[in-house]
Amino acid sequence: MEFDLGARLRSLREQHGLSQRELAKRAGVTNGTISMIEQNRTSPAVGSLKKVLDGFPIGLSEFFASDFSSRQKIFYDHEELTRISDGKIAYRQVGRDLTGKSLQMLHEIYAPGSDTGRSMLSHQGEEAGVIVKGKLEVTVGTERRILKAGDAYYFESHRPHRFRAIGNEEVVVVSACTPPSF
Questions:
Q1: Helices marked H in 39-148 — which ranges?
Q2: Is 22 helix (H, G, I), strand (E, B) or coil?
Q3: Element (H or E) spanning 36, and its range?
Q4: Which residues contact 159 (CB under 8 A, 6 or more apart)?
C-alpha cells in the first residue's frame, strides 16, 4: 500500500479542527501550499513539510509513524450503540472497542422485575448512574435504596452490589463504570 502524504496531512489537520487557511497561517505558508500537498499535487521537500508540521506542532517521525486516518468517533446515534446484552436486562454501550479506555458509558433497560442476580457483583473501579425512568432497587454492601427517575447512585465497585427493577414499569438507567467491566 502506497503512503498517501496528502491524506495523512488532511486527517491530521481535521483531527486538530483546523482549516487549510488556519494551518497555513500557523505554519507561515500559503493556504495554496496546504491544498496542493493534501491533493498530492506537490511533494514537499523535507524542510517544507517540517515547516507545515510545526503548525500543529508535530515532528516528522511522529507524522510518518502515526495513523491519523482512524479518527475517534465522538457522536453516536441510538442505532450505533454497541449491544452488550439483550434479554431481561439490555445493555447498550457508547463506543465499540474500549481497549485502553478508562470509562464505560451504558444505556441500560431493565424489564419489570428483572435483576442482576442473587449473587452480588464486585469488581475494581467506580460506578455511577442516573435513573431515567421507573424504579430501581440498588443494593451496595448492606445499604439498599429504591431510586426513581432523576435519582442517582455513585459507589466504589469493589463493594458488593446488585440492581433490581421494582414494579410493573421498565427501568431505564444511564450509567458509567471505570474501568470498563464488560
A1: 46-53, 60-65
A2: helix
A3: helix 31-38
A4: 122, 140, 141
Domain boundaries, the chain: 5-65, 78-178
pLDDT in tens, 12-44: 888 888 899 999 999 999 989 999 999 999 888
Residue type, 107: H
In CATH terms, are 5-65 and 78-178 the same topology? no
Q: Cell digits for 37?
A: 500537498
How many CB atoms lie under 10 A from the CB of residue 108? 20
The string of pLDDT tens digits covering residues 37-64 is 999 998 888 888 999 998 888 888 778 8
| Domain covering 5-65 assigned CATH 3.50.50.60 in the classification | no
| Partners of 108 in beta bridges | 91, 173
Q: pTM of the prediction? A: 0.62
Q: What is the CATH number of domain 78-178?
A: 2.60.120.10
Instruction: Cell numbers for 129, please give them.
Output: 448512574
Cell digits of residue 95: 463506543
Maximum CA pair distance of the chain? Answer: 70
Q: Evaluate if residue 81 carries a pLDDT over 70.
A: yes
Locus of grid cell 510518518: 64
